[in-house]
Amino acid sequence: MLRARPWVAACFLLPALLLLGALVLYPIGWSVVRSLFDARGTGFVGLGNYAEVFTDEGILTAVRNNLVWLAVAPAVATALGLVFAVLTERVRWGTAFKLVVFMPMAISMLAAGIVFRLVYEQDPDRGVANAVWTGVHDTFAESSVWPGARPRPGAPLEPAADNGGFVTTSPVSSAHPAALPLVGIPPQEAADAPAAKSPAKDASSVTGTVWLDFTRGGGGEPGAVDPGERGLGGITVEAVDGGRVVASTETAGDGTFTLPPAADGSRLRLPAADFAAPYNGVDWLGPALVTPAIIGAYIWMWAGFAMVLIAAGLAGVPRELLEAARVDGAGEWQVFRRITVPLLAPVLAVVLVTLMINVLKVFDLVYIIAPGATQADANVLALQLYLSSFGTGTNQGVGSAIAVILLLLVVPVMVLNVRRLRREPRR
Fold first, then answer.
1. Could you tell me if 53 and 59 are in contact, meaning their C-beta atoms sit under 8 angstroms apart?
2. Which of 114, 269, 346, 360 is 20 to 30 A from 228 via CA?
3. What element of type H or E holds 180?
4. Rounded to whole angstroms, how far apart are CA atoms 278 and 282?
C-alpha cells in the first residue's frame, strides 16, 4: 500500500519531519556553520575555533573532567543499580527500597544541585556531609579544649617555637604562683565554667591559674583574677626545662593547677593542642574534590534509574537456570557472576550507554554545585559551551565548535546503541 501511495506515508511523516528539521537538523547545521566564523560571526576563521578548543587550558580542563565523568559515573551508577536490583529481589520490603532509591529521579537537576550545594557546605552546622564527617572524626580524635584562646596582651606568655603553643617568658618558682590570663574566647562559651580562683601559695609545689581575663561590662584589673571571671579547666600545663617536659598536669574547673617540686625553676608551656581551631571537616567543593563530589550527586540521582531498568531485566531471567545452578552446588556469588550478569548483559549495556550519553551532556549539577572559586576546576564541556557562548567574553564561534565536538562524541555511542537494539530481536 505504501509503495502504491507513497504520498500517504509522506503526509503522515511530514509533521514529524518538520519538527525534526526545525528542532534538530537546523540547529546542528547552523552550529557547524557558526563554528567556522569568529566571535562576531562575520569573519571566516575555518578551523581556528577548533584549534582554540584544543589549546585553551580552561577548555582542556573541561575535556579532562568529561573523561573522568565518562569513566566513573556510568560504571558506578550501573554497578550500584545492579547490586540494588539483585539484593532487593527476594526481600519483602524490596519495593519500598526501590521506590526510595528511584525517588531522586523525580527531582530536577537544578533542585538536586541546590540540595547538594547545601549538603557539601563547609560549615558542619549547615552541611550534612561535614556534620557526619566531623562527628566521626571527633569520636576518634580529641578536640581542643578552648579553641581560639590566646594570651592577654601584657601577660607573661609568648609563642612557643617548638609546638605552636605558648610558654612563660621566664622560669616559675614555687614562691610565686603563676598567673596565666587568656582572652579570645567568646564569653558565652565560658559562661557555664566555674568562677576562677587565685592560686594558693604552696612552698612545696608550683601553682597557678589559667583563666579568661574578661569581665562583663568592663572594669577589672588586667592580669588579676577579678570577681565574675571564669576559670579555664582541662588545659594541659607542662613544665619544660632544657627542651624536656619534667612535669605535666591539667587545670581544674576553676583554672587552678599544681605541679610537683620538679617544676620549680622551669618554664610553663600551654600546648597548641589546647587552643587549635576545631576540626571543620573536608573541603568537598575545593579544587581537589569538587568533581568527585558532583559525580557523587549524579550517582545519587541516576542509580535509581539503573536499578529500575536492571530489575525489569532481572524479572525476565528464567528462574529455572538459577535454581538449577544452586542445585548443582553453585554459591550465590557464582550464580550472580556466571549466570545473572551474563543474562543481564543486554540490559546492562543499555543502561551503561544511556548513562554515557547523559554524562556527556551534564551541565546543571556542575553549574549549581561548584562555587565560583572552583567552577573552573569542575568545568565540563557542556558548561564550557554555555560560558563560551553566553558568559563573559562571549565567543559563539568557540561555543559552536564545542557543541560540534560534543555531537561527535555522542554520535558513536548512539550508533553503537542503535546497532545493538537492531540485533536484539534476532536473538
1. yes
2. 269
3. strand 178-183
4. 12
The amino acid at residue 231 is G
Give the tens place of pLDDT for each residue, 85-123: 988 887 888 888 888 999 998 888 899 999 999 999 988
Q: Between 3.40.50.1240, 3.30.450.40, 3.40.50.300, 1.10.3720.10, what CATH number should domain 35-126+284-426 receive?
A: 1.10.3720.10
The Cα–Cα gap between 307 and 83 comes to 8
Which residue type sits at 3? Answer: R
Residue with cell 579555664: 232
- The 8-class DSSP code of residue 124 comes to T
All three cell numbers of 89: 529481589
Residues in the chain: 427
DSSP string, 24-68: IIHHHHHHHHHTTB-TTS-SB-TTHHHHHHTT-HHHHHHHHHHHH
Q: What are phi and psi of 157, to 5 degrees?
A: -135, 145
Planar angle of CA 150, 155, 159, nearest 5 degrees? 50
Domain boundaries, the chain: 35-126+284-426, 150-274
Model pTM score: 0.77
Q: pLDDT tens across 200-250, in order?
A: 777 788 999 998 988 876 777 888 888 888 899 999 999 998 888 999 999
Dist. CA 174–CA 266, nearest whole Å = 10
Task: Answer whether 8's CB lies under 8 Å from 23's CB.
Answer: no
Q: Which cell is 384 given?
A: 564550557
Instruction: Name the pairing type of β-strands 244-250 and 150-151.
Output: unpaired
Helix (H, G, I), strand (E, B) or coil at 385: helix
Contact 129, 286 (CB under 8 A): no
Q: Which three cell numbers stand for residue 393?
A: 567574553
